[in-house]
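Example 3.
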Amino acid sequence: MSTPPNPDSVILRTERLGRTVNGKILIQDANFAVCKGEVLAIVGPSGSGKSSLLRLLNRLDEPSSGTVFVEGIDYRSIEPRVLRCKLGMVTQRPYLFPGTVADNLRFGPAQRGETLPQESIEQLLAQVGLRDYAGRDVANLSGGEAQRVSVARTLANSPLVFLLDEPTAALDEAAKHEVESSIQKIVRDHGLTCVMVTHDAAQAARLAGRALLLESGHIVRAGLVSEVLHA
Amino acid sequence: MLRLFFHTQLQLGFAQAAVAALLALAVVLLARRGQIHLEGEILIAMVRGLVQIIAVGSVLVVLLHAPRWTSGLLLAGMIVAAGATSARRARGILDAYRISAWAIAFGAGSVIALMTWLGVIDTAITSLVPVGSMLIANAMNTNGLALNRFRSDVLAHVGEIETALALGAEARNSVTPYVQASFEASLIPAIDSLRSLGIVWIPGLMAGMLLSGVRPVNAAVYQFVVLAMIFAASGLTSLVSTLLIRGRVFSPAEQLLLQPGR
């Protein structure tokens, strides 16, 4: 097993986190911590509860038990809208809103009454390799481009932690490579803390430092990616 | 044709009802061939409708001689029943019945009250109850359409709504496009009725007035008044119900509660 995370640098910590729906256990007693700047992969077979766990982290679903601490604060005491900006999520399918790429990037800040400057839009798009895409209609983007816009849109909220729910699962190989490279670059350049759900062990090995293996809603193994994947 | 076989008014009435019901059943059977199963709902609705209208018809005979305040009671009862009927179109949405009843009470109730006060609707029970019931029934239909459309739109756009929430949108704002779409869609029948008045259809009320000897222009103007009132009542109802329902698909922590399969 890997060394436990340094308590001083823990940015996100779950405590006996669980969710049961109609008697079915989706997640039970999940205890783990994420340190500032690290990439944690959540791996496991289909239906093991990976996405359910991620949805609990930004409170898109309500835990039946336990809670999450964000920078030491119980997340139930944080306004959900504020919490979701801090824990920015990218979903498997990029649900872009009708309009231009720039409109999509402005969406998050606009919810707080802020206007995202054009310069920031250009910077964000450059980070995901989509320079000069600001004025494009999202209806004309490829799957990989749309997912990279989705990544940039989440980054526009300046999240503390980046939650990625199988961001390349719906893409072909070429697009998967583009999106993965963008994520890798962002994490490396900005030291962004990242929790990533993936069913792709090779991807977990390429992107993450530590991993949790989930089976039937339980964390059955946690540690360095190499230890978890090859045990 | 039916008159050849049925000689009393009652027999003839039931025969006509049976033929109309058979036609409706034929449509249900055709739909069934296309894997659309409406038989249970339609059968229950037809039997209920027939029993209810006969019961109300019998009660109306008595009520014709009742004091005027009883029309208020009758209309209030209709609003309660209309709320329950249209709320069924919003399965899985919290407080659907309460919202429907309040929306219909506000939409139809305020139009009935205003128009009665202005003297457009006569206070006689024979006028107030039938006209009021028309407004309530149309408000109920509009409300059902609005709720049904909102529910299906939310279920079809869970990803978009949750994406907006995940980006920090206020829950109520994340469903705004679907609130607008359901409001617009719910008013299509009322708008089309107004638009096609006199060209595609001559409403029963106008036909009845003409048969009873009212001058055609007077009958036509009153019919327009009724349809405009129906539009106002329906529009107000839909506006209130869509505004109220938008917050009911979320938990206090702004989580989308209406999800496929939940």
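Residues 68-249 of chain B form one domain. The radius of gyration of chain B is 21 Å.
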